[in-house]
Amino acid sequence: MAGKRGDHEYVPVHDIVDGKELRTFLEERKLKVENLPKIFSTDPQAVKLGAKEGQVIRVKRNDHSNEYLYYRLVIK
Amino acid sequence: MQAEAIEYIRFGVISPDSIKKVSVAKLTVPDTYNEDGYPIDGGLLDQRLGVIDPGLVCKTCGARAKTCPGHFGHIELVRPVVHSEFAKTIYMILQATCLECHRILMDDERIEEMRKSLAEESESEEAQHGPQQKRIRNVKKCPHCEAPTAKIKLSSPTYFTADERRMKPDEIRDILAKISSDDLRLINIDPTITRPEWMVLSYLLAPPSSVRPSITLESGERSEDDLTHKLVDIMRINQRLDQNINAGAPQIIIDDLWELLQYHVTAYFNNETSGIPPARHRSGRALKTLAQRLKGKEGRFRYNLSGKRVNYSARTVISVDPYINIDEVGVPQEIAEKLTVPFYVTTWNLEYAKDLLSRTSYPMVLNIISRDGKRKRIIDTNKDEVLKGVVAGDILEKQLVDGDMVLFNRQPSLHRISIMAHKAKVLPGKTFRINYCTTAPYNADFDGDEMNLHVPQTLEAQAEARYLMLVPYQIFSPRDGSAIITNSEDGITGMYNLTKETTYLTNAEASYLLGICGIYELPKQGKAGMYSGRDVFSMILPKGLGYEQQTAHGPFRIKNGRLAEGLITKETYGRDNGLFVKIAMDYGYEELKDFIYISSKLADAYVTLCGTTVGVKEYSIDKKLEDERSIIITETFSKVSKLIDDYRNKKLEPLIGYTLKESLERIIISELNAARSHAGDVLARHEDETNSAVEMAKSGSRGSILNLEQMSMFLGQQATLSGGRIKRGYYSNRLLPHIAPNNIGPAARGFIVTSYYSGLSPVDLFMHAVGSRGSEVYKALLTGRSGYLYRRLSNALQDYYVRDDKSVRDVNNNIIQTVYGGDTISPIYTQFAKLSKE
Predict the structure, then answer these.
(1) Do B358 and B438 belong together in one domain?
(2) Which is it for the CA torsion B77, B83, B89, B95, positive or negative?
(3) What is the 3-state secondary structure (H, E, C) of B426-466?
């Protein structure tokens, strides 16, 4: 079996998002960080990125024909 | 829905102290009223518990019957009894504790371990408890005092024994009381909220009289509530027990009465407790006690809290009317006269309002609601007075008339189009009438179905109904964007026949058809003074429409509002089509709705005019086809027997990922399926347009080539649920005794070579029955399961909404999805999106 855990082609690209991008995203939508969907810090993708509780992970999702960004708050 | 976030809800057991605290009266007399019909002090309807008779004043709060909320009282039980609903919990606690030292049956090491894991992972508490309990049950000796553990038994509902010795409630209470708070935490009980000894009752809370009001019958006799009856029983036994104890009666008598008291208290909480005979009324009817009030479909939750009843609604049988528009609903005159729509009187419509008020026949005003909210019925005697007094701000309740917005619903309301807004059309008769094009979203038919109608009562509700729920806006299904409100079956056949290239109509025929559609001009004449069917059909198309589509019947082309080429079939008109979408995009939903309505009238008129029929004739086949059928069957059989020979001689090439046996099975199945589709092709090629069954299949109005083939060629392979061939049934690896052992040929495994027309042989019939039963069972299971799955989904998703930034949110503003559906396109508009891309 090739590839590391959490490295499948079907899994969309996950990144830890920096403060500025997150701030604009939240402000534009009048959101608090807690309003974002959650992701466990034990999730394979979070483990791969070494994400810590409280950080936000950006997912480049590709549903149908459109690409869009999805943000998930890392929780324990 | 805007919700305040609830931090938590905590349930616990009420303590005797709390009971005494909330209680306003200690009840001592096991009776309700004295001879004068006056509530007895200390009785079950003591006036301190609140009053229900008008005129009396509550002795606790001083309010009268309407405003007094009622107050709890209490009964002191002379001997404690087990709360039957907590028997299981008590049983669990007793099993986990030592009866000598009252410690939990875990050694210090494990206790420490538990404590740590509880502190760390409060969430997985429950997962921890299951295995712990099991381990505790096997402990033989108390790890703290070395005393051997007793075997606790609970025989339902409330009879406890320890090593075969009866444990009375007071003993149980004393044991429970001695368990330390620290130990309780280990068995998932928070001692600050719930002490286990509270599960054994010494005080019983008596609900206020307003919870169990007595009813005064016409004869002046009083009839008490079931709960009061049960409380009387409890108090009576309680009193007798007290007397016996004080008189120094023998222990047996005391124990008997004690057990009787336990029984009554158990029945008071739940009269359906297993292990006790239900307490009965004098008439023999089982009493409805506390649990019965809350439980089940007729309980407080499902009946009164989740289920609300409404006014301004009507229900009756539905029937068809193809001559009312699809956004209308025919309302019986009788119903229209009872239902009302509010009319808001202003200074500008005051004169009109007065005209309405002075009417003496339908449609007239039934009630007037004055500005102070008082509703007054208008009758002949007060009409003049009301007429003089009407001012701006009053609301008139006017009878339902044509064009009023109403909501129409058929249960089960599985999706949002189970409720749509229609325009009322008042008609004679006693049934609701709907156009058959709208039966699909309701899943209605006219074999006795009933439907509900609701009249929105505010202008806001009427506007919402008009602009969100009206039938034209629901034409496209929220499932995939295909049209769900559409013409079907004979209607499709009608249009198919009308738009055939060979169809020409006389002047009389064309005039008749168009007249029915409300069109009073003719298209331009074709050859020999006749009118082509396509030109007649084109008359009902929206002016200037342009549309093109490739179909199985060749190109379909509408140019400048004229059908230039192609046929109307299910492909071009009906569920999966671009034509409706094109009309909706270019002309709007209203125009589309009228197109569906008028085309259905045209189609019905034409199909009635030219007639269409199906008989056995359609399914009989001639010699030539019969020969073809035999050839297909013999060829297939020889192919399969060769495969089997190859398999037996180990010459068969296995398929990738399958064993040789599996490969053989798969190849055989695909061979047999190929035979059937081949037969279908032959049939379709052979039969011509004069066969109306073929015509129906081709136009898509009803049936398919497969159906035809099963009726006239052969039935083909009967499959099991798993999709494989049938193989079990009789012993020695065969289906029936008629089949040789180890025969795995087509006929031996459910391949039927006869048709419905030719008749099935007994063996074939058996095979067919196996298949039918399988699919019938599957269908029954599938509908139940998928229905429940859908219900859970829609309940879970119901309060989600799409914000203006196209993100999906819940009521607490949490993001569910940043971009709705990933592409912001509602399924309803998927077809629109496709069409506008082209």
Answers:
(1) yes
(2) positive
(3) EECCCCEEECHHHHHHHCCCCCCCEEEEECCCCHHHHHHHH
Tell me which of A26, A33, A68, A72 to substitute to probe the interface with B (most B C-beta atoms closer than 10 Å).
A68
CA distance A4 to chain B (A): 26
Q: Do residues B458 and B319 both lie within one domain? A: yes
- The interface predicted TM-score (ipTM) is 0.91
Residues 12-41 of A with CB under 8 A from B: 28-32, 34-37
The 10s digit of each residue's pLDDT in B529-563 is 899 999 999 999 999 999 998 888 889 999 999 99
Report pTM. 0.78
Nearest to A36 among B812, B815, B822 (CB): B815
Which tens digit of pLDDT belongs to each residue from B501-520?
999 999 999 999 999 999 99
Q: Which of B610, B640, B673 lies at the terminal end of a domain, its last residue? A: B610
Q: How far is CA B133 from CA B120, B124, B125, B130, B762, in A?
A: 20, 15, 12, 5, 60
CB contact under 8 A, B821 and A29: no
A67 lies in some domain:
yes
Query: Is A71 a member of any domain?
Result: yes
Looking at the fold, whether B604 and B626 belong to one and the same domain comes out as no
Per-residue pLDDT tens for B31-87? 888 888 788 888 888 888 888 777 778 888 888 878 888 999 999 999 999 999 999
Shared domain check, B569 and B441 = no
State how far the Cα of B586 lies from the Cα of B603, in Å rounded to an integer. Answer: 23
Residues B326 and B460 in one domain: yes
The answer to whether residue B133 scores a pLDDT higher than 70 is no
Q: What was the pLDDT predicted at B131?
A: 53
Range name among A4-13, B628-637, B661-670 with the lowest pLDDT average: A4-13
Length of chain A: 76
Domain membership of residue A24 (yes or no) is: yes
Domain hosting residue B821, numbered range: 801-837
Q: Do B372 and B427 lie in a common domain? A: yes
Has residue A2 been placed in a domain?
no
Clarify whether residues B412 and B336 are in a common domain: yes
| Residue B773 within a domain | no
Query: How many domains are there within chain B?
Result: 6
On chain B, the residues whose CB falls within 8 A of the CB of A63 are: 821-823
d(CA B340, CA B693): 50
Residue B784 lies in a domain: no
- Closest CB to B823: pick one of A30, A36, A63: A63
Beta-bridged to residue B331, according to DSSP, are: B426
Residues of B in contact with A71 (CB under 8 A): 815, 818
Measured between CA atoms, the residue of chain A closest to residue B810 is A35
In chain A, DSSP finds a helix count (H) and a strand count (E) of: 2, 4
- Among partner residues B813, B819, B824, which is closest to A31 by beta-carbon distance? B813
Q: How confident is the model at residue A4 (pLDDT cuts 50, 70, 90)?
A: low
Q: Looking at chain B, how many residues does it have?
A: 838
Q: Is the pLDDT of residue B140 over 70?
A: yes
Domain that holds residue A17: 13-75
In this prediction, residue A1 carries a pLDDT of: 44
Residues B360 and B467 in one domain: yes
Residues of chain B found within 8 Å of residue A73, distances taken between Cβ atoms: none
- Using a CB-CB cut-off of 8 Å, the residues of chain A touching B814 are 34-37
Return the CATH number at A49. Answer: 3.90.940.20
Please name the residues in contact with B446: beta carbons below 8 A apart, sequence gap of 6 or more: B318, B319, B320
User: How many CB pairs below 8 Å do chains A and B form together?
Assistant: 40
Query: Is the CB of residue B815 less than 8 Å away from at least one CB of chain A?
Result: yes
3-state secondary structure of B112: helix
Is residue B42, in this structure, part of any structural domain at all? yes
Q: Which of B760, B785, B816 is the last residue of a domain?
A: B760
For residue B216, list its beta bridge partners. B222
Q: Is residue B787 part of a domain?
A: no
Do residue A61 and residue B822 have CB atoms under 8 angstroms apart?
yes
| CATH code of the domain containing B597 | 1.10.274.100
Q: Do β-strands B340-344 and B395-399 pair in parallel, antiparallel, or remain unpaired?
A: antiparallel
Q: Measured between beta carbons, which residues in chain B are less than 8 angstroms from residue A35?
A: 812-815
Using an 8 Å CB-CB cutoff, list chain A residues near B824.
66
**pLDDT higher than 90, residue B825:** no
Number of domains comprising chain A: 1
